[in-house]
């Protein structure tokens, strides 16, 4: 009996395979963690890039008129939202998130006695809804900005974004403010991370001399991406 025990103790055959078998679960767990956290970082970068690109595009888009001002139209907004869908298709942002585009303006309108800073209008994209997904910094009605009247003037606002500091529009100008809330889609469920929300904002001052009176929707009219719609 003692002889058999000594032979087994001295036997080194397949030692590496046995050690690998013991270490394999730990190696796989740590490897999966690395993949998960790398994917999370990549998702954050993609959401931030979408926010910046949308704010930049919204600050440039529009139709130049004979009055040397640029009209922004519903079709222009729908076009830049189409760009968002293409840019974020890899993370399915419109399926698992919510994008809110706000026009924060500090522009005297015909019905103003003094200049008023307001969220003049908002347009949205994405299926997610409710607290945590809809705009955290102020909302407007679905008709806000669709006519150049006080009834559709939007919502008075001191600014948008986090309190330190908030984004505000310069006098006579508008700011395109983008807020994105996205449910991170984990690769391994809840094994490494709990369900979490990726949140990013971005803003750009409007680049051209824009007509801030309203959003135009000339014939043939298009369906506006108003924030009561929750679509991909």
Largest sheet: 5 strands, antiparallel
* Helix-and-strand structural type: alpha+beta
Strands of the largest sheet, in order across it?
5-4-3-6-7
**Annotation, overall tally of beta strands:** 7
**Helicity level:** 25-40%
- Overall pLDDT confidence: 92
The percentage of residues in β strands lies in 15-25%
The number of distinct structural domains comes to 1
- Element-level helix/strand string: HHEEHHEEEEE
Q: How many helices? A: 4
Overall geometry: elongated
Distance between the termini: 73 Å
Radius of gyration: 26 Å
Fold and architecture overview:
With 232 residues, this protein is of the alpha+beta class. The protein has one domain. It is built from 4 helices and 7 strands, in the order ααββααβββββ. The chain has helices spanning 2-10, 15-60, 74-87, 93-96; strands at residues 63-64, 70-71, 97-106, 117-125, 155-156, 174-183, 197-205. The strands form 2 sheets. It has a 5-stranded antiparallel beta sheet. Strands 1-2 form a two-stranded antiparallel ribbon. β1 (63-64) and β2 form a beta hairpin. The radius of gyration is 26 Å and the shape is elongated. It starts with a helix and ends in a 27-residue tail after the last strand.
